Design the sequence.
C-alpha cells in the first residue's frame, strides 16, 4: 500500500474513499479508472463503468451506492447546458476530488496524451478540450441518461446546492467568469451552426447559469431551483 502524496496528505479523506487503492504517485484511485497490467491509468475510464454506475446507482468516484442526492463534478460550461459526460458521485467524494485531484486543482495542467491506446473512445457529446480552471459541484436529486450520436450523456436536474472551486478552494466570481468567458465562444459557435432556435435556447441557458453564479456566494450556497 502506497502512502498519500505530500500535496494532499492534510486533506481529510472521506471514509468511502479510504477503501480505494492508492497509486504509486500517492493519489486515491477513483472507481471509474481503467487499470492496465496492475497499474491505474488516471486518463482512462473503464469502458463498463459508465453503464454500470448508472444502472446500479453507484458513485463514480468510490463505487458504492448513492443515496437520495446525486453530485456532479463538472466545468462551468456544464452549468449552462446542464449536461455531463460522467455519472454522479457522493457529495463528500466530489468535494474531496475538487481539493485533491491534480487536474482539477492545477488550472495550467494539460491532459497527457502520451502512449494512450489507439482504440480509446472519446466521451459522448462535444468535449471542450481544455482545463477550465474552475470546477463546479452540482448537487441534485434528479438526473437522466440520454443517447447522442457518439455515445451517451447525462442530463442534470435542478440544483439543491452548487459550489465553484479553483485550485482546491472556493473560487472567486472573477475566476468563474473568466472560465465561462473562455468557453462560451465554443458553445455559441455550435449554436450558430444549429440555427436561431439554438441561439435563443443558449441565451436562456446562460441567463439561468448567471443566476446560479450570483447566488453562489459561499463554498456551499443554497439555491432555489
Sequence:
Amino acid at each position: 500500500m502506497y502512502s498519500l502524496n505530500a500535496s494532499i496528505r492534510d486533506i481529510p479523506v472521506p471514509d468511502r474513499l479510504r477503501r480505494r487503492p492508492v497509486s504509486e504517485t500517492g493519489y486515491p484511485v477513483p472507481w471509474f479508472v481503467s487499470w492496465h497490467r496492475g497499474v491505474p491509468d488516471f486518463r482512462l475510464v473503464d469502458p463498463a463503468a459508465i453503464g454500470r454506475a448508472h444502472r446500479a446507482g453507484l458513485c463514480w468516484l468510490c463505487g458504492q451506492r448513492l443515496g437520495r442526492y446525486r453530485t456532479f463534478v463538472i466545468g462551468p460550461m456544464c452549468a449552462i447546458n446542464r449536461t455531463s459526460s460522467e455519472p454522479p458521485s457522493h457529495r463528500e467524494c466530489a468535494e474531496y476530488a475538487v481539493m485533491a485531484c491534480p487536474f482539477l486543482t492545477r488550472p495550467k495542467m494539460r491532459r497527457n496524451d502520451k502512449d494512450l491506446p489507439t482504440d480509446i473512445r472519446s466521451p459522448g457529446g462535444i468535449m471542450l478540450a481544455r482545463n477550465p480552471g474552475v470546477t463546479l459541484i452540482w448537487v441534485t436529486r434528479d438526473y437522466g441518461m440520454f443517447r447522442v450520436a457518439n455515445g451517451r450523456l447525462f442530463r442534470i436536474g435542478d440544483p439543491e446546492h452548487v459550489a465553484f472551486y479553483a485550485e482546491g478552494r472556493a473560487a472567486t466570481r472573477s475566476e468563474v467568469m473568466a472560465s465561462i468567458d473562455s468557453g462560451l465562444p465554443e458553445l455559441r459557435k455550435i449554436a450558430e451552426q444549429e440555427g436561431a432556435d439554438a441561439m435563443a435556447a443558449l441565451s436562456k441557458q446562460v441567463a439561468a447559469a448567471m443566476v446560479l453564479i450570483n447566488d453562489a456566494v459561499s463554498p456551499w450556497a443554497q439555491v432555489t431551483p
